[in-house]
Write a sequence for this structure.
């Protein structure tokens, strides 16, 4: 029902014939601090992808979503899927894109399967009308580290960002970095890791 509502909304707003999604989508997941950002450039180079990655956490910038993330929790499935599919319709992603942070739950995983089926069906439908859409190609990459490594890396990331922001404030050089509350509090960092372990990891195994 979640996916059906999102898809119906897209068809109503954009028109079925305008639903052209990327030909190749790499779904990049991983524990907090597992190195998704570090490995993204290597994946892009290997696959010839030039568009910047779609980072799910960057899409979720509503006040409600920010409050949920600040507590180390997850935003609702329907909101995430709607924001993501709308983003993937942007023309810069036509040749391929990395999506960082999706799917994270069993529901999102099931919706991803439905999304693939819709892309295949839409391609066949458009082909019968003389229009060629790219053949959908999904790849999934899941990076994993244990809990203690994850917590340490999250806190280290927060400390480095805080040092950078202090330099920016003192000397006016560079740009301030966003610091998640989970990167400052070991217990919140641990909670974020366990959410990943109990949702994303279990959903994709």
């Amino acid at each position: 029902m979640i996916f059906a509502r999102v898809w119906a909304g897209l068809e109503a707003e954009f028109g079925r014939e305008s639903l052209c999604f990327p030909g190749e989508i790499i779904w990049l997941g991983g524990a907090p601090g597992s190195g998704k950002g570090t490995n993204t450039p290597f994946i892009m180079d290997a696959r010839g992808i030039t568009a910047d990655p779609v980072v799910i956490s960057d899409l979720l910038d509503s006040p409600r979503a920010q409050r949920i993330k600040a507590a180390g929790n997850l935003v609702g499935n329907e909101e995430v899927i709607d924001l993501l599919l709308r983003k993937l319709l942007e023309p810069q992603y036509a040749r391929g894109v990395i999506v960082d942070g999706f799917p994270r739950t069993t529901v999102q995983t099931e919706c991803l399967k439905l999304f693939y089926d819709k892309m295949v069906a839409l391609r066949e439908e458009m082909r019968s009308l003389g229009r060629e859409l790219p053949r959908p190609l999904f790849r999934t990459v899941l990076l994993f580290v244990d809990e203690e490594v994850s917590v340490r890396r999250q806190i280290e990331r927060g400390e480095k960002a805080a040092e950078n922001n202090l330099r920016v404030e003192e000397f006016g050089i560079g740009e301030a970095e966003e610091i998640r509350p989970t990167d400052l509090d070991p217990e919140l960092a641990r909670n974020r890791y366990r959410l990943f372990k109990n949702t994303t990891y279990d959903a994709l195994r």
